Amino acid sequence: MRDDHAPTKPGAEDFASLFAASEKNSTRGRQTRYAIGDRVKGTLISIGRDVAVIDLQNGGEGTLDAVELRDESGQLTARIGETIEARVVAKGDKEGVVTLRRAPARGMEARNSLGQFATSGLPVEGVVTGVNKGGLEVTVAGLRAFCPISQIELRPVADASGYVGQKLLFRITKFDEEDRRGPNVVLSRRALLEDEGRDRAAQTRSTLVPGAIVSGVVTSVRDFGAFVDIGGLDGLLPASEIGFQRGVRPSDLLSVGQAVTVQVLRIEKRDLAQHSGGAERTNRADRLGGAGRAGHAESAGRPERTTGTGSTSGTGRSIEQITLSLKSLERDPWDDAVMRLPPGTTVKGTVTRVEPFGAFVEVLPGIEGLLHVSELGAGRVLRHARDAAKSGDALDVAVLSLDREKRRISLALASDEDRIDDEGHAAAKRAGASSGMGTFGDLLRGKLR
Questions:
Q1: Nearest partner of 97 among 42, 166, 179, 162, judged by Cα
Q2: Which of 1, 141, 359, 360 could form a disulfide with 110 if both were Cys (CB 3.0 to 4.6 A apart)?
Q3: 59 and 155 together in one domain
Q4: pLDDT digits (tens, 9 = 90+) for 351-365
Q5: Dihedral pair phi/psi, residue 387, rounded to 5°
Q6: Is 286 strand, coil or helix?
Q7: What is the pLDDT of residues 253-285, one digit of tens each?
Q8: Which domain holds residue 376?
Q9: Which pTM does this prediction carry?
Q10: Chain centroid offset of residue 299 CA
Q11: CA-CA distance, 405 to 94, in Å (whole number)?
């Protein structure tokens, strides 16, 4: 029988630890399989005169030209122990060692290495020289190249003339040296922007929680609300969360490019299959209307937006909806209404909408009261409130009662105020205090007591 309390032989524990560490390193080495173009991260472990060495997070080592870690004056811009991100441009002579690159190619270096950069995905620098019907004409290292208009930005560009003369970074998506008219070089700026967006989205999502207050930029305005970029992620700002005022369209208050401060209301995960139809409809609208990037939280793949209660994105079978609010950061106008609109108060209001049972009148910004159809007829029986009022009409009304909890105000025409004498006002106040929501009938019953 084994004695669990038997003393361990000298050196046995050290040998076991060394063996485990050796196995770990061996396994790590076997997992090192990088392809040209892979983006990698690692820890800077040495800087020589010509070459820097990086210990890669997924195993193996990468070598980087030391000049890429120096500024124009020759001073180092990175220190030992810092995390370095680069792209694999070649496989080294030794197993598990790859050659890395950080900076974009420029000048003759770019011209001599265009094929390599097309394969690796590293950016190249180009100057926009002109615009044609299909996109931008770009010069890269003295060669003519073309960037389709759909590949300039994350969203459609209506007029590309403003890019002429600009020096920009691009990714080579097609490189054909065999073309009889010379090298055929096709570029994409959007591919680089999408990479940057994914990195920002991952960073934003890691700190995003319901209740967080974040800054963003409006990227698209629709009838149902607006999409807001909050740092690589697009959240939906529903029309009902833009403000307290009713009857106002999102486009009346927001515009594309507008900076806003919003609060995160919800972050919800849903089944992607439930939203597939909505995703197709919205993606089609994005292509036509200009909301191209749907940055939402994702871990891999190209982000997609779907419609629903929030801005959504997904990978695999799940999506994540981010719902935002402007209204939650504003002062609730009902807090002021209680003080400013006690029963008996006469105010000027504007009819916002009419229904068969009455007209809704805005008596304060964001505060509406109901003027019952029986109050509008001046003694006549009306079938619909529109027979006596319409949206936009200015009316003098008197407050009969106000219910803060239910957010309701009952109104009467101020022209009938002779019927609301001091006793009537007291009855209205009693009705407001007891039931919260009184009617003109309640008021009359109070007067008869």
A1: 42
A2: 141
A3: no
A4: 888 888 888 988 888
A5: -70, -15
A6: helix
A7: 899 989 999 999 999 887 655 554 444 444 433
A8: 333-448
A9: 0.53
A10: 15
A11: 74
